[in-house]
Each structure stands twice: as structure tokens, then as C-alpha cells.
Specification:
The complex is a heterodimer. By secondary structure, chain A is mainly alpha-helical. Chain A has one domain. Helix content of chain A is 73%, strand content 3%. Chain A has a two-stranded antiparallel ribbon with strand order 1-2. Chain A is globular and about 55 Å long. Chain B is α/β, with parallel strands linked by helices. Helices cover 37% and strands 27% of the residues of chain B. Chain B contains 9 helices and 10 strands. In chain B, the strands form 2 sheets. Chain B has a 6-stranded mixed β-sheet with strand order 6-7-8-3-9-10, with helices on both faces. Chain B has a 4-stranded antiparallel β-sheet with strand order 2-1-4-5, covered by helices on one side. The radius of gyration of chain B is 17 Å and the shape is globular. Classes of the chains: A mainly alpha, B alpha/beta. At the A-B interface, helix 6 and helix 7 of A face helix 2, strand 6 and helix 3 of B.
């Protein structure tokens, strides 16, 4: 049972980083980014590569993963989404992100083939080795400690950036009214670019921890996309604090329900049912998610 | 030398040309009023000058430099400020946050100095600092919007119908403030205004636009004396 609790918490930590990043892109550029799961895999393969080359624990590769995920996400924005920002509608942007998902996924497959030849390690269906950390006699898996610390530090930093700095005010202003922000001298392109960087970096950070709990391959990012979207929708599109609540709701529900179903002899392959059911139920009952349900309307990031 | 010069500007959206061959100029401490019937391209001309819509041909010079192809935020950093007709304040932010945003690139002491100057000119802003903009009335929002523009210490300010949706007495008050921008703060102003007669009273130059083209460009007094133009296009 403890194993299930640990699994649920780690999974929820990862979903929190993923869903806040996905929501940030929905807020700034109105893109339902289907390539978001691939940034997770950029984090995974950066951690695998760097840890193999340097011979260190994958946890130590977190800074490299943050940079790699951020840079690739920023590049996608500058090359694809920035030119489309004022020209394409929401559906077109979504379809473009689906195409980019395929491109990124196959690029990751190619990278996995090359890395396997160069590094002489398995680059598909592999796990990272974890270790236990002892706190006053209690042994806790490293992944629980490090994923919790990382998600708290990254998300608190994001909160401070958005609400306690002038750059954050410029970001919030650009989200609400890009034209006016531009009129006041805000470089909206760069501000949106920064939000893509942050989103990609958060997803890649989640990727560093994923192989400690699940066997991964370049396609795994796609399977992370459904619970991430479910977290955003449950929390409320546009509410970053809602995404946090959504992530822990979906994460815990998915792991525990799967555990209960498995103990009844039902296949764990039905796990995505939880996310799908959550999306449908929330959209039918309260389309603005929990934050909309609690507050009415309006854009209130963090303040749900 | 003119502060702002527009030369034979053709601009619009997508492939549609809205502004066709407009030329005008504004010097220091001068107000240019752009008037004309609805749909004549007045707001599009302002957007084109600021770089928010497509310029097909023609040029915009600001402080003697061709700014036609540079991004809007850089025009703003050079001292050209544009106040849109609607959605000209950030509703989710407080009055103070709106003002801070307008000058987030200056030092705190400089911010205070500018802020004191604005409060002398627009004393009503002082009571609005800690309120969220979405709780403010239309007039209060316009004051915050104007204060935001002034915090940037611009050389030229472009106002797109600052009196739209305001009660008549409040509209007159705002337009009086526009002439004070020139007289007390030494600014140049480009003013697009439905309230044509009042706008022409306070301005130094007038541009009458009809169907995207210049119908009259010159002294406001000369425009007001042309009975036919006034009757046909300004509805007076």
C-alpha cells in the first residue's frame, strides 16, 4: 500500500509540473499543445545521455534537462507558433501542434537509435536506478524526495516570477492584452517566448523523474498527455493553481483506482479511463473546471 | 523638422486596403485632430503609424528615423505612445500595477518622480491606485490609461477616441486635458475623435478622412469654415 501512495505522489508531482506548463501555453498563445508530452521525453533522454556520459545519478542531470526542454520549446515557438500567432485560429494551432508531436516523437526515436549505438545502453523500455534516503529511521525512495522538492521549488519560483517581479507583471499583462502591452513597450514576442521556455523546462524536469517509476520509450510522452490535459481541464483552463489541484486529483485518483481495479482482477490497461471520465464529467458539469466552479468566471491564475 | 511624418501611407488588414495614400505631419507641441465619419479609416491610420496593422506602401518617420518596419514596442521605447480606443487598461491588475507596467524598465526613484508629476496633472489617479481596474468606471479607466501613457514620458501620444462611451461632461473634461498635455507637458498629440467640433477647437492641425483618403488637411479653422465639408462629413 505504501508503494501505491509513493507512486501516486510521484505521479502527481510530475503531473503538476506538466499541467502548469501546458496551462501557461494555453494562457499565452491559446495553443492546446499536443507536443507537450514530447518535452517530457526530451528531459528523459537528456538525463539518460548526461548521466551515462558523466557517470552521475540522473537527478544531477536536472539542470541539463531544464535547459534542453526549455530551448526546444522556445525554438518551436519562434519557428512555428510565433509566425502563426496572429494568423491561425485555435483549431489550426492545435493541428500544427499535433504535427509537431509526430515530428518530435520520430526525432526522439532517431535519437534513441543513435544513442543506443553510441552510449551502449538500452534507450527503450529502460528504468533509472533509485536509492533510498533515510529520514529519522524512515527510508523514503529518492524519487519521492527529489520530485517533490523539484516541483515545489519550480512552481514557487514560477509564482514569484509571475507575481513578484516586473517581468511577471509584463507576462500577465501580455496574456490579458498583447496589443496594449506592446504599446507600452513590452516585447510581447520575447515574453511569450519565455513562457514557452518555462513550459518546456517544467515538462523536461518531470521527464527526469519518470524513468524511476515507469519504463519509457520515445512514445511515452504521448501517454502522459491525456492525464495532463485532464489535470488542466479539471483545474480549469487559465487557472494555474487550478492545474495544481487538478494534477493531484487526477494523479491520486488514477493510481488508486487502478490499484483497486487490479485487486479485483481487472486489467490495469483501463487506467486512461480515469482521465477520460474526468474530462467528460468536468466539461459537462463545470466547463471552467474547479476554479470556475468555485469562483465564477474570469482569469485568475493561482487565485482559484 | 517634424516629430512625426506620414508619407503616402497605404495600410490595412490582410489584402484589404483601408488607408489609401494619407500624408500628414506633427511637430513638437502640436495637436493633430483626425476626424471623419465612421469607417473612414481613422483608427486604422493610428494602428498603421504604430505598426499594429499591415503597411502596403508609404513610410512613417518618427524623430527623423524611418520606423515603418520596426516592431511596435521599439516605437514605444523611442517615445511614441498609442492609447487604443477600447481595452486600454489591464483589468486584472490594480491601478498601481498598471502604472508600474508602463514603466517597468525604469529605476524605483525615477518611477516615484514620474509618478509625482502625473499626480499633479491627474490628481484623480491617486485614489485609484489600489483598486482593481475591473471595479472602475469608464472615466476612471480612461484616467488610468492616460496616466499609463504619460508615465512613459512620451514625445508624442496618439489617442484613439479617448471620449468614446463617456458622458458628455466627462468627454469635454478629457478633451480639455488633451490640450493641457500640449500646453503644460509640452507633448505632441495625434487625436482621433468622434466628437469632431470639440476636437477641432483644441487642435492645431486637422485631417479629415473619408473612405480611407485625405479629404482635407490643414488648419482646423479652415475646415470649420468650409460649411459643406462640415455638414457632409461631420454631421453638424
Amino acid at each position: 500500500m505504501i508503494e501505491v501512495v509513493v507512486g501516486a505522489l510521484v505521479y502527481s508531482n510530475l503531473l503538476a509540473m506538466l499541467s502548469v506548463g501546458l496551462n501557461l501555453i494555453l494562457l499565452t498563445c491559446k495553443v492546446s499543445n499536443f507536443a507537450h508530452g514530447d518535452f517530457v521525453m526530451v528531459g528523459v533522454y537528456t538525463a539518460l545521455t548526461v548521466s551515462t556520459i558523466l557517470g552521475v545519478t540522473p537527478y544531477a542531470c536536472l539542470p541539463f534537462a531544464l535547459i534542453a526542454g526549455g530551448v526546444i520549446s522556445f525554438a518551436l515557438y519562434r519557428v512555428v507558433f510565433e509566425p502563426l500567432r496572429t494568423r491561425a485560429n485555435l483549431v489550426m494551432l492545435m493541428v500544427v501542434s499535433m504535427a509537431l508531436d509526430i515530428i518530435l516523437r520520430y526525432s526522439l526515436h532517431i535519437y534513441a537509435d543513435l544513442a543506443q549505438a553510441w552510449l551502449k545502453v538500452h534507450t527503450r523500455l529502460f528504468l533509472f536506478d533509485d536509492f533510498l534516503i533515510e529520514f529519522s529511521g524512515v527510508k523514503i525512495p529518492g524519487v519521492l524526495v527529489f520530485s517533490s522538492l523539484t516541483s515545489v521549488i519550480l512552481l514557487v519560483s514560477l509564482y514569484l516570477l509571475l507575481f513578484k517581479t516586473r517581468l511577471g507583471t509584463a507576462m500577465r499583462a501580455s496574456i490579458e492584452n498583447p496589443e496594449l502591452a506592446e504599446a507600452l513597450g513590452v516585447n510581447v514576442k520575447m515574453v511569450f517566448g519565455l513562457s514557452w521556455f518555462l513550459s518546456g523546462a517544467l515538462a523536461a524536469a518531470a521527464g527526469v523523474f519518470l524513468p524511476f517509476r515507469a519504463m519509457v520509450s520515445p512514445d511515452t510522452g504521448w501517454s502522459m498527455l491525456l492525464p495532463t490535459f485532464a489535470s488542466v481541464i479539471v483545474g480549469g483552463v487559465g487557472s494555474l493553481s487550478g492545474s495544481l489541484i487538478g494534477a493531484y486529483t487526477i494523479g491520486v485518483a488514477e493510481v488508486f483506482l487502478t490499484y483497486v481495479l487490479a485487486s479485483l482482477g481487472v486489467s490495469t490497461a483501463y487506467r486512461p479511463l480515469v482521465s477520460f471520465s474526468a474530462i467528460i464529467t468536468v466539461l459537462l458539469v463545470s466547463p471552467k473546471g474547479l476554479s470556475g466552479f468555485l469562483n465564477g468566471k474570469g482569469w485568475k491564475p493561482w487565485k482559484s | 523638422m517634424s516629430l512625426l511624418e506620414v508619407r503616402d501611407l497605404h495600410a490595412g488588414y490582410g489584402r484589404i486596403e483601408i488607408v489609401s495614400g494619407v500624408s500628414a505631419s506633427v511637430s513638437d507641441r502640436e495637436i493633430l485632430a483626425i476626424v471623419g465619419p465612421n469607417g473612414s479609416g481613422k483608427s486604422t491610420l493610428l494602428k498603421a503609424i504604430f505598426g499594429l496593422c499591415k503597411v502596403f506602401t508609404g513610410n512613417v518617420f518618427f524623430k527623423g528615423v524611418d520606423v515603418t518596419r520596426i516592431p511596435p514596442y521599439r516605437r514605444s521605447l523611442n517615445g511614441l505612445v498609442y492609447l487604443p480606443q477600447t481595452r486600454n487598461v489591464f483589468e486584472s491588475l490594480t491601478g498601481r500595477e498598471n502604472l508600474e507596467l508602463a514603466v517597468r524598465d525604469v529605476h524605483e526613484s525615477d518611477f516615484r518622480k514620474r509618478f509625482e508629476g502625473i499626480i499633479t496633472f491627474l490628481p484623480e489617479v491617486k485614489g485609484l491606485l489600489n483598486r482593481k481596474v475591473k471595479t472602475m468606471s469608464g472615466g476612471e479607466r480612461q484616467m488610468i490609461a492616460l496616466a499609463m501613457c504619460l508615465m512613459r514620458t512620451p514625445s508624442l501620444i496618439m489617442l484613439d477616441e479617448p471620449t468614446a462611451a463617456l458622458a458628455p461632461n466627462l468627454a469635454r473634461h478629457v478633451l480639455e486635458r488633451v490640450s493641457e498635455l500640449r500646453d503644460e507637458m509640452g507633448l505632441a498629440v495625434v487625436l482621433v475623435e468622434q466628437n469632431a467640433l470639440t476636437a477641432l477647437e483644441v487642435s492645431d492641425k486637422a485631417l479629415l478622412m473619408v473612405s480611407g483618403s485625405t479629404r482635407f488637411y490643414g488648419k482646423p479653422q479652415e475646415l470649420l469654415e468650409d460649411r459643406e465639408l462640415v455638414k457632409t462629413y461631420l454631421g453638424v
